[in-house]
Write a structure and sequence with these properties.
mainly alpha, Tetracycline Repressor, domain 2
């Protein structure tokens, strides 16, 4: 008899395990068995809940996006345009979004978007939302909000990439300083 209420807990464990394993491996070349073992369950149970490795990756990608979105929403209430802009940028480097495994997994999901239309769609949604939110925050602060938003998005992606390629722990403060320094220069 199945345990009532176990499914969401097990799915969450598999999603966290997928993020950890992809981040640890630095690639999508992990097996369902590795993910399941990390989550403390059998590969058959992982397949039962998600159907395939790609579906586990997509669920992990959605989880990372939801976590980032919630970080932004939590920082937004009662803020003006500059506060909104800072909230969006700071969320990118918040502890829950800027752990080595999460950053590595996130960048590997970019690679997944080349071969998975579902991953490509999630990535497009993320890019469109980020760009739109940045443009709204930059109106009134910049003479070229679209260009500044595009550069800022590219800079955040670049900082993530460099972080993954640099050995050792992630340095959210240094990453945030880099992006905020660009913003100060762009808005002056």
């Amino acid at each position: 008899m199945p345990k009532l209420g176990a499914e969401p807990i097990r799915k969450a464990a598999l999603i966290n395990a997928a993020i950890f394993e992809v981040g640890r491996a630095g690639s999508l070349d992990v097996t369902v068995a590795q993910i399941a073992r990390r989550a403390g369950m059998s590969p058959a149970l992982a397949h039962h809940y998600f159907g395939s490795k790609e579906q586990i990756f997509l669920a992990a990608m959605r989880y990372i996006l939801r976590t980032y979105g919630q970080s932004v929403r939590d920082a937004l209430p009662g803020r003006g345009p500059r506060g909104r802009l800072d909230a969006i940028v700071r969320a990118s480097f918040a502890p829950q979004n800027f752990q080595r495994e999460t950053v590595s997994a996130w960048l590997n999901f970019y690679a997944l978007s080349f071969v998975s239309s579902d991953a490509a769609r999630l990535l497009r949604i993320y890019h469109c939302r980020l760009r739109s939110n940045l443009i709204v925050a930059l109106r009134g602060l910049s003479d070229h909000p679209e260009q500044t938003a595009d550069t800022l998005g590219a800079l955040i992606d670049g900082v993530y990439l460099r972080t993954v390629l640099t050995p050792g722990p992630t340095d959210a403060d240094a990453a945030l300083t880099t992006v905020l320094s660009y913003l100060e220069e762009a808005l002056s």
